[in-house]
User: Fold this.
Amino acid sequence: MTTPPVFDARGLVKRYILGETTVEALRGVDLEVSAGEVLVVAGPSGSGKSTLLHLLGTLDEPDAGSLTLAGTATATMNERARTLFRRSRLGFVFQTFNLLPVLSAEENVELPLWLAGVGARERRERARAVLAEVGLEHRFGHRPDQLSGGERQRVAIARAIVHRPLAVLADEPTGNLDSETATEVMDLLMALNRSRETVVVVSTHDPALIARAPRRVVLRDGRIAADTRGAAA
Ligand SMILES: Nc1ncnc2c1ncn2[C@@H]1O[C@H](COP(=O)(O)OP(=O)(O)O)[C@@H](O)[C@H]1O
Ligand SMILES: [Mg+2]
Assistant:
């Protein structure tokens, strides 16, 4: 049997209603992402990147269309099944890092394992191993406010992968970083994709990062305007 795509989106439509106006954030998006892929979702501000990543991550539901995750149609999953899938099979990275300020780097990374019921000793060992993997073996006990922006995003990436998800969804993860740090974070995500075969979906409007990605999906006004593979032109 062939492995089903990790994400199989068909005709995704998402509308936001604001009083009298309706914003069509996604107007029929088809996207198939296979196991092991890394891709960038590009497009100008307002083109629907965040909306698409939220739908792929089951953080929000489409108004039309379907999403199949690793062979299971999300329409057949109830809220609890979706939550369990999200926690155990997906990882998220956000522009604003979303780390808990009172917790150390290590404790932040332990959170997904804690939610999965992993015991204290194994949590600590796995969190430390992943922090070392992202280059932060010297920062286990630091709180977010004691870390640089790039280091905070590395902690967030460690938290997103510590439970070995099928896919990491990163929404403008470099939006608050300088260009050199942004490149390092993108390279780290691509290295993790290679070493762990985790699917990585990164949204960005940074041309330098878009050019580095092996696959580029460009959104324009809620539709896919281009979907290209191989070296950027
Ligand atoms: N919660 C929301 N309520 C109303 N409109 C929204 C909301 N989220 C996004 N939008 C609108 O949907 C469109 C797509 O937004 P978004 O997915 O955030 O794009 P991007 O991430 O590419 O900037 C934009 O027109 C935006 O203003
Ligand atoms: Mg966005």
About this structure: The chain has a mean pLDDT of 95. DSSP finds seven helices and ten strands in the chain. Residues 49-50, 172 surround magnesium ion (ligand 2) (CB under 6 Å).
